[in-house]
Amino acid sequence: MNGILLLRIATAIILLTHSVFGMFNNGINDFGNLYLNQIGFAPFGVFLAWSIKISHVVAAILLLLNKYVKPAGFVTIFILVMGIVLVHFQEGWFVVGGGRNGVEYNFLLICVLLAIMYPNGFKIGSSA
C-alpha cells in the first residue's frame, strides 16, 4: 500500500464519519437551522447543510475509487475553507488543548487533499 492510497482511505473515512453520523442524529438539520439560517443563509440553510454532507459522502466514495479525485478535492477544499471562514477562524487555531473548534483540523485536511490531488507536487511552467 502506498502513502497516497493510505491518505485516500483515511480521508474517506473521516469524510464519511463526519457526514453519516449527522444524518442520523439530526446534526445536519440542526447545523442548517440553528447555524446557517441564523448567519444569513435562510431559507436555504438545511438544503446547504445537506448539500455539504452529501458532497462529503460523494468525495469519500470517489477517493476510495480513485476517480475524479481533483474535482472532488476542489469541492471539498472549498467547503473546508468556507468552514474556516464562517465557523472556525473566530475560534483560533486549536481544535482541542489550547482552544476549541479552531482551524487546525480543516487546515490538515486541506493539506492532505492537496497531497492526494498532486502526489508529484505542483508543476509550475513548462518542462521544455
TrEMBL record:
The answer to whether the entry has keyword ATP-binding is no
Q: What kind of membrane protein is this, topologically?
A: Multi-pass membrane protein
Q: Name one GO cellular component term.
A: plasma membrane
| Location(s), subcellular | Cell membrane
Task: Extract the Pfam families matched here.
Answer: DoxX
Can the keyword Membrane be found in this entry's annotation? Answer: yes
Main localisation, per the record?
Answer: membrane
Membrane spanning residue stretches: 5-24, 44-65, 72-90, 102-122
Keywords, ordered alphabetically: Cell membrane, Membrane, Transmembrane, Transmembrane helix
Cross-referenced InterPro entries, in alphabetical order?
Answer: DoxX (IPR032808), DoxX-like_oxidoreductase (IPR051907)
Task: Quote the PANTHER family the UniProt record gives.
Answer: INNER MEMBRANE PROTEIN YPHA-RELATED, OXIDOREDUCTASE CATD-RELATED
Similarity annotation: Belongs to the DoxX family.
Q: What's the protein called, per UniProt?
A: Putative oxidoreductase
Whose protein is this, by species? Flavobacterium defluvii
In the record, what lineage is assigned to the organism producing the protein?
Answer: Bacteria, Pseudomonadati, Bacteroidota, Flavobacteriia, Flavobacteriales
